[in-house]
Design goal:
The protein is of the alpha+beta class and 378 residues long. It has helices at 2-15, 40-46, 64-75, 107-111, 118-135, 150-167, 169-176, 178-193, 195-208, 223-234, 284-299, and strands spanning 29-34, 51-54, 102-106, 214-219, 246-248, 251-254, 282-283, 305-309, 325-330, 336-342, 351-352, 361-364, 367-370, 376-377. It contains eleven helices and 14 strands.
């Protein structure tokens, strides 16, 4: 499926960039954006135009512009594949956002004392920011260093640095930027200093406009800033585990995250009788595209079979009355339950030619000759 669809998705994304964000759905909860360059009182005065309540299974009609602002930034700030093993605040897994610009948590975590006491909430958010600082050094983890000898290891480290300078210099520049470091400190101090006021606002808002599930706090920043932070988070985590990462030419390949799990508790996909244990490896780019592709597939609905025309899958108004098509269904977890690719040309005539690639022999008279298979016609 990866081979069939990722390239088509990439081509479609090039022609229609909105394809990535459009299908992304906001989770049920309350969303608010704050400006750390203003006082809490100034933020409070403007907050009516800066919050949004999202209810389950509803379309947002009002505040459409605000909805789109949150949709883009939520997409760039959420834990990969909703997998809390990829959360920043391990082992607690109570904060579901991934950058210094956001705090996402369930309402019972922030508004009640059931999970954390009043003092513990502030301590845990501070812990989240401290863990973020450590996680920024993880960006290099995606590149495998396998050498044991000092000279060989030094050579691999030099190649790693060259790789990142060549392909991800913008991320390295961001990580080393003094302005970004100052911005992190400003955001952290603003949230911690005004946490009581912020939580009080959410409690009062709930009395006036009841909401459920998530509380999501966003710092006002550009889409580019959010996208950069997303890449810093995703790059070392986009593969299921770094254990199977390898260098292939000028790229890094690894085990894609999502459906394929190979930990000690669920080793179902491990190839135990082959030289390689991983059933499949994809490039960094393919892994990133696969993540977005699955979001698109999931947005089409679960528990039903979808049929998409073979050469027209991602276009609007897709004609599904076609033999030449992709057929798939999604389960409750957003994973592919069933998949079939039927790439036949639309015609009443079909011919299958069978090649004897194994060199199987058959006896003809007294001689053994390479077996020939008749074509299958219609």
């Amino acid at each position: 499926m990866l081979i069939d669809l990722v390239d088509r998705y990439k081509e479609a994304l090039h022609n229609e960039p909105s394809l990535k964000i459009e299908p992304y759905k906001l989770k049920e909860g309350v969303y608010v954006k704050l400006n750390p360059d203003k006082s809490w009182e100034e933020n409070k005065k403007e907050v009516e135009d800066r919050y949004l309540i999202v209810e389950k299974n509803t379309q947002i009609i009002e505040k459409r512009e605000l909805f789109e602002w949150f949709q883009i930034r939520d997409y760039y700030s959420s834990v990969l594949n909703d997998d809390l093993n990829k959360a920043i605040d391990l082992p607690a897994r109570k904060i579901h956002s991934t950058n210094y610009l956001t705090i996402f948590a369930k309402e019972d975590v922030l508004l009640t004392n059931n999970v954390f006491s009043k003092v513990e909430k502030k301590k845990h958010i501070e812990y989240f920011y401290n863990q973020l600082e450590k996680s920024y050094t993880k960006i290099y983890d995606v590149y495998p260093i396998t050498a044991k000898k000092t000279d060989e290891k030094k050579e691999q480290l030099e190649k790693r640095e060259h790789f990142f300078q060549m392909y991800y210099s913008h991320l390295l520049d961001a990580l080393q930027s003094e302005s970004r470091k100052k911005r992190i400190e400003i955001c952290k101090n603003f949230i911690l200093q005004h946490l009581d006021d912020i939580l009080s606002f959410f409690i009062k808002l709930k009395e006036k406009h009841p909401y459920k599930n998530y509380i999501k706090i966003f710092i006002e920043a550009s889409e580019n800033e959010y996208e950069t932070e997303s890449k810093i988070y995703l790059l070392p985590r986009i593969f299921t585990t770094a254990d199977y990462n390898a260098i292939a030419g000028n790229d890094i390949v690894g085990l894609p995250s999502g459906d394929i799990t190979m930990n000690s508790k669920k080793p179902f996909y491990m190839l135990r009788t082959m030289e390689t244990k991983a059933p499949i490896r994809v490039s960094l780019e393919e892994a990133m595209l696969r993540k977005d592709l699955y979001k698109w597939l999931e947005s089409k609905g679960k528990f039903k079979t979808h049929v998409y025309k073979y050469n027209n899958m991602f276009r609007k108004g897709n004609d599904t009355d076609s033999r030449s098509a992709y057929h798939f269904s999604i389960n409750a977890n957003g994973s592919i339950d069933f998949y079939e690719n039927v790439p036949f040309i639309e015609s009443n005539e079909f011919e299958f030619y069978i090649e004897n690639i194994t060199g199987a022999l058959e006896k003809v008279n007294n001689d053994y000759v390479k077996k020939y298979y008749q074509p299958i016609v219609n």
